[in-house]
């Protein structure tokens, strides 16, 4: 495992999707396709960003970590911040953090903005991870 020594940030482009509990089907539980697609986007964006770090060889980051999530939404609809956080954190699981039941979140900050308040008018989430 790798220890983070300085803050690390990256941007995940796409419409953030809130993740609620599993949906119950007739034969099994499932994650709806738009939510699973968002988790995949988070995973690949995190992996691509980590590949730019010198010395990163696929290890998980350990230790108490602070996550600062800034969401840029395409509309002004009210969305549950905890469910948006869950979609991002589940996408990071297995890429940056081994599993969310063994890491410690020192603090979690969530900010919300409309895409018109960003320079590039992009929907997505800015992630900053600090030791």
Q: Which architecture does the CATH hierarchy give at level 2?
A: 2-Layer Sandwich
- Average pLDDT, all residues: 77
Q: Outline, from the CA principal axes?
A: globular
Q: Cα distance, first to last residue?
A: 14 Å
Summed up, the domain count is 1
Widest sheet, order of strands: 2-8-6-7
The CATH class turns out to be Alpha Beta
Overall structural class, as computed from helix and strand content, comes to alpha/beta
Helix content: 10-25%
Q: Poorly predicted ranges (pLDDT <50, ≥5 residues)?
A: none
Beta-strand proportion: 25-35%
- The number of helices is 2
How many strand units? 8
Order of helices and strands: EEEEHEEHEE
CATH superfamily: Holliday junction resolvase RusA
What would the CATH topology be? Answer: 60s Ribosomal Protein L30, Chain: A
Largest sheet: 4 strands, mixed
Radius of gyration (CA) equals 15 Å
From the structure above, extract its key features.
single chain, 131 residues, alpha/beta, 60s Ribosomal Protein L30, Chain: A, four-stranded mixed β-sheet, 2 helices, 8 strands, globular
Describe the 3D structure.
With 131 residues, this protein is α/β, with parallel strands linked by helices. The chain has one domain: Holliday junction resolvase RusA (60s Ribosomal Protein L30, Chain: A, 2-Layer Sandwich). The chain is 24% helix and 31% strand. It has 2 helices and 8 strands. The strands form 3 sheets. A 4-stranded mixed beta sheet has the order 2-8-6-7. Strand 3 and strand 4 form a beta hairpin. Helix 1 packs across helix 2. The chain is globular, with a radius of gyration of 15 Å. The two termini are 14 Å apart.
């Amino acid at each position: 495992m790798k220890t983070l020594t300085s803050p690390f940030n990256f941007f995940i482009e796409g419409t953030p999707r809130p993740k609620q509990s599993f949906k119950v089907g007739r034969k099994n539980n499932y994650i709806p396709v738009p939510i699973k697609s968002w988790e995949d986007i988070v995973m690949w964006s995190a992996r691509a960003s980590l590949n730019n770090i010198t010395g990163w060889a696929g290890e998980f980051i350990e230790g108490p970590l602070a996550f600062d999530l800034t969401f840029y939404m395409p509309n002004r609809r009210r969305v549950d911040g905890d469910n948006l956080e869950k979609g991002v954190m589940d996408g990071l699981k297995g890429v940056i953090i081994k599993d969310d039941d063994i890491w410690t979140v020192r603090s979690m900050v969530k900010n919300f903005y409309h895409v018109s308040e960003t320079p590039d008018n992009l929907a997505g989430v800015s992630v900053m991870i600090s030791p």
